[in-house]
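S.,

Sequence below, as promised.
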Amino acid sequence: MSGLESLYQELILDHAKNRRGFGLAGSDADATSHQRNPICGDEITVRVRMEGDRVASLTWEGAGCSISQASASMLAELAAEGLDRTGAERLIEGFREAMRSKGTLELDEEEFGDATALSGVSKYTARVKCAMLSWVAFEDALRRS
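The prediction came back faster than expected:
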């Protein structure tokens, strides 16, 4: 394993253990989305609160593998930066494109922050749904808000 792969693995494990945005905050959310991966049993609920066109908060609860938990944590961290709706949609689509690339497309660290560590997941088709679960829930919640 290269030094970068080792660093990414540590980052994924850190986010899986120290989950940012974990715990469904308040009932003042504009939208909630629950998603489940029937293949592996991962589940996640994402709650989004908007202030105008900006994501004011993204909180979540869920159970599943380290990849699904880390991905949700990384997404919550990105959303905490106050994404606007268009930026959030662009981020989701960029993440989806990278996950479908089968390892040919790396996520940009400046845009995706810690979620860059998930780039390698795209090489493992069975794990892509784990990484995408919270992003799909976020996309659904944005549509509902």
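Residues 36 and 43 are 4 Å apart (CA to CA).

Coffee later?
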